[in-house]
Design brief:
Blueprint (H helix, E strand, L loop, with lengths): L1 E5 L5 H10 L3 E5 L3 H8 L10 H10 L3 E4 L2 H7 L2 E4 L14 H13 L4 E5 L7 H12 L6 E5 L9 H6 L4 E4 L3 H11 L6 E4 L1 H32 L3 H9 L20 H14 L5 H25 L6 E5 L14 H11 L3 E5 L4 H8 L4 E2 L3 H5 L4 E4 L4 H4 L3 H7 L4 E4 L6 H7 L2 E3 L8
Parallel strand pairs: 1-2, 1-4, 2-3, 4-5, 5-6, 7-8, 9-10, 9-12, 10-11, 12-13, 13-14
Helix pairs in contact: 1-3, 4-5, 5-6, 9-11, 9-12, 11-12, 12-13
The protein binds nicotinamide-adenine-dinucleotide.
The site of nicotinamide-adenine-dinucleotide (NAD) has 26 residues, from helix 5.
């Protein structure tokens, strides 16, 4: 099949590369020429395991093409996925201007039947808005349909997730749209759920809101654990064995970040408000998440007595392991709070340091490895649970530090072992602190 994907980012590029790997001819369009220049040479502008190999392979096979012209993709493709960003506005609403702009461009150049598929995460009723916009601006009167096909991949395992989804959701309004999407997704083994467009849009927002809720739930429990000396890891295990609950997303820590949960939760709260419903539950989820960063800073301050003049090293910057993405990363809030308290902030991250340098400039000192980071540090804060941090030589780390203080924002280490090694150690909800 001939496909166009608009947006060569974390979702769009994975979608384009994976569909081309399945043998489809894919034109991937983006407005950013710098990104495209790299992509045409097989260079992916962000870190996503396995993605660059797919891009290189399918460029060579001449199944994957990059362009900055919508017309080029739309003229040749029956199905057009929109995977542009939908960042939050200051109000919390999703900014849909890029989506609208793309729809407008498609309408101008489409010369026959086209299926526009929302892959970006959008609030419910965006499909209806797109249809209204198309009716108003579609000059050539070619039949253009809209569908929703939300994406559930996770950064860091995007390629794997694309090929192994838990489910595939289509929101469609005609048999033709349904057939086209079914044809595309036929080789996948996952269950396919076909709905109306609004339901498909809601499935995505509701899924992310639910996962955020699970994280905030266990984080709230972790606060109680800290107060009574219980261990939230054990509590989570005990809860998770219940098949009605399940073990995933019950890891207490400094809370969620990234380009999905924070903005999607806010957008869901806002669209609910507009529809006349006060989604109090989700407001509490957000509040608890914000509190976790504050609690981490309080723990750090408590252990160090004062932040002023202290050298604090952050282990990890990306919002989660296996990505270099810093969008809405908890590290950014933590850095700002530590600096406000007068600390000197240093950091090491296996992938996100170029982006951190670009974003934070002289606000942060970057170390070349965790051991350099530990040298003369008054405290280390584990922010991202990269695998290599689990395997650190903690004896060596302790020797290098000025004071052996470690605050574990992801509950990566064993409190008993940390105490035996002589660290002053604090984690999130793991009972009495060493
Ligand atoms: N990142 C994730 O893990 C993830 C997972 C599921 C869904 N989503 C959703 O997918 C959408 C895209 O997210 P992302 O992480 O891929 O963002 P991204 O910033 O990585 O990629 C978006 C791309 O769109 C391009 N773009 C922006 N405006 C454009 C325009 N008018 N025309 C052409 N290209 C344009 C940008 O240059 C960028 O390359 C969002 O709605 C997001 O919520 C993201």
């Amino acid at each position: 099949m001939k496909i166009c994907v608009v947006g060569a980012g974390h979702v769009g590029l994975v979608t384009a590369a994976c569909f081309s790997e399945m043998g489809h001819r894919v034109v991937c369009m983006d407005q950013d020429r710098k990104k495209l220049a790299g992509l045409r040479k097989g260079k992916v502008w962000f870190y996503e395991p396995g993605l660059e190999d797919l891009v290189v392979k399918n460029l060579k096979k001449k199944r994957l093409f990059f362009t900055d012209r919508v017309a080029e993709g739309v003229k040749q493709s029956e199905v057009i996925f929109i995977a542009v960003g939908t960042p939050p506005l200051p109000t919390g609403d999703a900014d849909l201007t890029a989506v609208e702009q793309v729809v407008r461009q498609i309408a101008q150049v489409a010369d026959g039947y086209r299926l526009i598929v929302e892959k970006s995460t959008v609030p419910v009723e965006t499909g209806r808005r797109i249809k209204q916009a198309l009716e108003m601006m579609h000059r050539k009167k070619a039949p253009i349909e809209v569908a929703s096909n939300p994406e559930f991949l996770r950064e860091g395992s995007g390629v794997y997730d694309f090929f192994h989804p838990d489910r595939i959701v289509f929101g469609v309004e005609s048999a033709r749209a349904r057939d086209l999407l079914e044809q595309l997704y036929k080789p996948f083994k996952a269950p396919i759920l076909v709905t109306d467009i609004a339901s498909a849009e809601l499935i995505k927002h509701a899924s992310n809101a639910y996962l955020s809720m699970k994280i905030s739930f266990i984080n709230a429990v972790s606060v109680i654990c800290d107060k009574v000396g219980a261990d939230v890891q054990n509590v989570a295990r005990g809860i998770g064995y219940d098949t009605r609950i399940g073990p995933s997303f019950l890891r207490a820590g400094i809370g969620y970040g990234g380009f999905c949960f924070p903005k999607d939760l806010e957008a869901f709260i806002r669209i609910a408000e507009k529809l006349g419903y006060d989604f109090k539950l989700l407001k509490a989820v957000k509040q608890i998440n914000d509190d976790q960063r504050r609690i981490l800073i309080e723990k750090t301050t408590h252990l160090l007595w004062n932040l002023k003049g202290k050298k604090i090293g952050l282990l990890g910057l990306s919002f989660k392991p296996d990505t270099d993405d810093l969008r809405f990363a908890p590290s950014l809030e933590i850095i700002a709070a530590l600096r406000k308290g007068g600390a000197q902030v240093h950091a090491y991250d296996p992938q996100a340091m170029p982006e951190a340098k670009h974003l934070l400039g002289s606000e942060i000192h970057l170390a070349k490895d965790p051991y350099q980071l530990a040298r003369d540090a008054d405290c280390l804060i584990l922010v991202t649970e990269w695998k290599q941090f689990k395997e650190l030589d903690l004896v060596r780390i302790k020797k290098l530090m000025r004071q052996p203080v470690l605050v574990d924002g992801r509950n990566l280490y064993d409190p008993g072992k940390m105490a035996r090694l002589g660290f002053r150690y604090a984690a999130m909800g793991r009972g009495k602190e060493a």
